[in-house]
Amino acid sequence: TRAEALAEAALERAQALQERLNAFITLTPERAREAARAADEHRRAGNISLLSGIPIAHKDLFCTKGVRTTAASRMLAEFVPPYDAFVVERLAQAGAVSLGKTNLDEFAMGSANEHSHFGPCRNPWDTDRIAGGSSGGSAAAVAAGIVPVATGTDTGGSVRQPAAMCGVTGIKPSYGRVSRYGIIAYASSLDQAGVIARSAEDCALALTAIEGFDPRDSTSLERPVEDHAAALAAADGRLDGLRLGLPREFFAVEGLDADVRRAVEEAARTYEALGARLVEVSLPRAELAIPAYYVIAPAEASSNLARYDGVRYGYRAPAYTDLDDMYRKTRAQGFGEEVKRRILVGTYVLSHGYYDAYYLQAQKLRRLIAEDYARAFASCDLLLAPTAPTTAWRLGEKGQDPVQEYLQDIYTIGANLAGLPALSHPCGFDAAGLPIGCQLIGPYLAETRLLLAAHVFQ
Ligand code: GLN
């Protein structure tokens, strides 16, 4: 009954905090109890994995069989998938007990979790502030002590940035490392699943469970999986010989908060004291990551979201005159403001006459940005940077100007454009007592190295 008792306590906490935080879109207490009973039975039969009976939560972008999966959109508010996402399947097989589905920005588009059809998620450290986005509900649920681990997706920072804003640890693995099967698509060439937890050690455990080849995702890697948790267990508490690169351009960003800069620089000195060697590196095209990303991501989104036509599944406008009118009303009513903005931008940059000037140009920039990272890794093993330029802002503060919100992604989107693994871990607090995140970015498939560094730091 150990797992049952754990599930009961976690459900109680989730329900008690729901009104304050709005971290969940759907809670599934009956399913959680059932999974917990099964985990207890497995344990009695002698089958135990470290995740067996552990309460978790899934970002509501992962399809869950028989449980509505909304993407925080009116378009999918009633959508009940007939299958589980790969990540959901894997964690269930490991015995983890899902409490339900967490809040996010609609279709994962946003950096604050304010663009949700179900209302914003609030930051447990200060409920007048954003939890970060798009995986805000998962980060808030972990930070509030509801679950020790939750899943997220990261297209441009959506695992790392909310983890930073909520004072927890989050990792986005290399592109292709975790199957995207069953994740509602936003920008397919950038989307990756990740995990958010209270420590690098817990991240390692959960990440190991979800990695691996999946033939149902054509970009899934056929490479053996590393046991990250075992690698961490063998750590000796030192990082001797590790070369940590500090990208010059990242620390020159206008808008980098003084407290954030101080905390990240202090983290660098702590790494130094643990044996790491600090080296200055350059990412000359760092500034161009935002314009490149905000062309490529909307372009892919406009294509991915074309499927919501009111015919196949999802919302359909109740009244219309003909087929065109049905499409128009369905999409006008089903999508929120930010999603519509991205679809319009996406169709514009892909349209005849603008394709070369915008989309093709952005693709070229993407390659140059990836080359910058590759060059930086010639002189260091990991990059150290802020996760976001500021701590959590007040709800509504940046709502008026979408560009203000886009600029918050300056430190995170490079890793997505280049397909690299990256992690955010807490490194202190600002003057208002809000958590600050420090980011480590690694070369392709260096997940263990990232987790190990953060683990030794913690
Ligand atoms: N903030 C970025 C965006 O709005 C990234 C979101 C994400 O990683 N899903 O696109």
TrEMBL record:
Residues 6-451 form the Amidase domain. Coiled coil: none annotated. It catalyses: L-glutamyl-tRNA(Gln) + L-glutamine + ATP + H2O = L-glutaminyl-tRNA(Gln) + L-glutamate + ADP + phosphate + H(+). One of its GO terms (biological process) is translation. The keyword Chaperone does not apply. It is an enzyme of class 6 (ligase). Keywords: ATP-binding, Ligase, Nucleotide-binding, Protein biosynthesis, Transferase. GO terms for cellular component: glutamyl-tRNA(Gln) amidotransferase complex. Gene3D superfamilies: Amidase signature (AS) domain (3.90.1300.10). The active site is at K59, S134, S158. One of its GO terms (molecular function) is ATP binding. Its EC number is 6.3.5.7. SUPFAM superfamilies: Amidase signature (AS) enzymes. Transmembrane segments: none annotated. Allows the formation of correctly charged Gln-tRNA(Gln) through the transamidation of misacylated Glu-tRNA(Gln) in organisms which lack glutaminyl-tRNA synthetase. The reaction takes place in the presence of glutamine and ATP through an activated gamma-phospho-Glu-tRNA(Gln). Belongs to the amidase family. GatA subfamily. HAMAP family: GatA. Heterotrimer of A, B and C subunits. This is Glutamyl-tRNA(Gln) amidotransferase subunit A. It comes from Tepidiphilus thermophilus.
